Amino acid sequence: MTEVLWHGRGGEGAFTAARLLGDAYILNGEENFALAFPSFGPERRGAPIRAFTKLDRNTIGDRSEINKADYIIYLDDTLFSDSAFSDLKEDGKILINTKKNYNDSRIVTIDGDKIALDILKRPIVNTIMLGALAAHFREINIDNIANAIKENMAPKLHDKNIAAVEAAYREVTEGGNL
User: Fold this and answer.
1) Cβ proximity of 50 and 5 under 8 Å
2) pLDDT at 54
3) What is the DSSP string of 113-161?
4) Integer Cα distance of 26 and 53 in angstroms
5) Which of 17, 56, 99, 134 is the most exposed place for a label (fewest CB within 10 A)?
6) Main-chain phi, psi angles of 130, to 5 degrees
7) 8 Å CB contact between 177 and 105
8) pTM of structure
């Protein structure tokens, strides 16, 4: 099973990204199963939240939160700390929306805010981080994510979000962040 842990703030779309990832994975194969769910309380917009995506070729019966993730994705770099490594599997990767650089092969950075402002005209990076993830997680591709966006988002959001996914994928693959 591949497990993805999302960190964001209320209103940033972490749970939407978790669901889109699950749908993209299911669209990539007949025998693919996914489970996505959030973890938050009565917090307001801007409060830290976590979301989870579990992906497997078998039915997923375990609905508990993820303890050790293959990928940990931060939509907001202020939520990242070194304690994240305790939640990461041995060969896992941490993807962070940030302008900072880290000297650690387990960390992949992308300036998702810049891509979001350029393409979406809003600082929402959830689909951008999906594009960055697709560059590392070979069980999904850009077409799967585009189809998931078309199935789950309003039509007026399709073109810009797909363009944002593509831009993030290119940034990671061509920018040497693999």
Assistant:
1) yes
2) 97
3) HHHIIIIISSS--HHHHHHHHHTT-TT--HHHHHHHHHHHS-HHHHHHH
4) 12
5) 99
6) -65, -40
7) no
8) 0.94
Nearest one of 13, 17, 23, 83 to 45, comparing CA atoms: 13
Extract the tokens encoding 25. 């994975």
Give the per-residue pLDDT at 81: 95
Please count the other Cβ atoms lying within 10 Å of the Cβ belonging to residue 43. Answer: 11
Query: Could you tell me if residue 134 is left (phi over 0), alpha (psi between -120 and 50 degrees) or otherwise beta?
Result: alpha
Q: What is the DSSP letter of 178?
A: -
Which residues of the chain carry a pLDDT beneath 70? 40-43, 178
DSSP 35-80: EEEEE--S--TTSEEEEEEEEESS-----SPPSSEEEEEESSGGG-
Of 117, 121, 97, 116, nearest in space to 107 by CA: 97
Structure tokens at 134: 């697709």
